[in-house]
Amino acid sequence: MESASTVPVLTIDGPSGAGKGAVSARVAGHLGWNVLDSGAVYRSVALAALEADVDLTDEAALVELCSQVDLEFFAGPEGIEASLGGRPLGDALRAEAVGEASSRVAAVPVVRAALLSLQRRFRRPPGLVADGRDMGTVVFPDATVKVFLDASVEERARRRYRQLKENGEDVTFDRLLSDLEARDRRDRERAVSPTVAAADAVVVDSTDLSLVEVVERVVAIVGDRVAL
Questions:
Q1: Are both 182 and 79 inside the same structural domain?
Q2: Ligand-binding site membership of 14 (annotated)
Q3: Which residues are involved in binding ATP (predicted)?
Q4: 18 is in an annotated binding site
Q5: Does 8 count as an annotated binding residue?
Q6: Domain membership of residue 163 as a residue range
């Protein structure tokens, strides 16, 4: 049986709106590898806690829940999709109550440690594409290939604006740009798991690239380092 430490891992980190989910899903589909959305891990545990009526201040109960969560990810046509106990989660993870609970769950150090172990269990043959903000620095520091996917904050705001407008939401570009700039500062400056490129990561700037071009570039980077 293949040891987990020998299973190749591609980490794709980067700021919000860089396109990590869509790129990770397509790259995983191309390679035939497993996929992990680290942000959805926290939201999924928060959802499970809410559904099981677990007190979000009960650290022991939350840690126990982390060990029991039956969470799976797969590459969907629009990005990474998740299922909990075999149930597709879809829009459930984006509910406001889940987001608020996720923020509280992520702030508990022992829960973060438990979820670190949970995320590492997704390292299974034939390989793993891990999407997040600290995949290459904290979760999989020994990853075979590390990519830091970036784009200008203006381009990331434009992408988000188009996405939200297509969904019928009433948003303004200036507000989205301001929100992204503030989020970038928080993510870069936070004491725990800041959003930074690993020292050995390949930086891919997607500002002027299409999704297909980014996927091709990332697949080529993996091909240079892993026998596919």
A1: no
A2: yes
A3: 14-22
A4: yes
A5: no
A6: 7-31+126-228
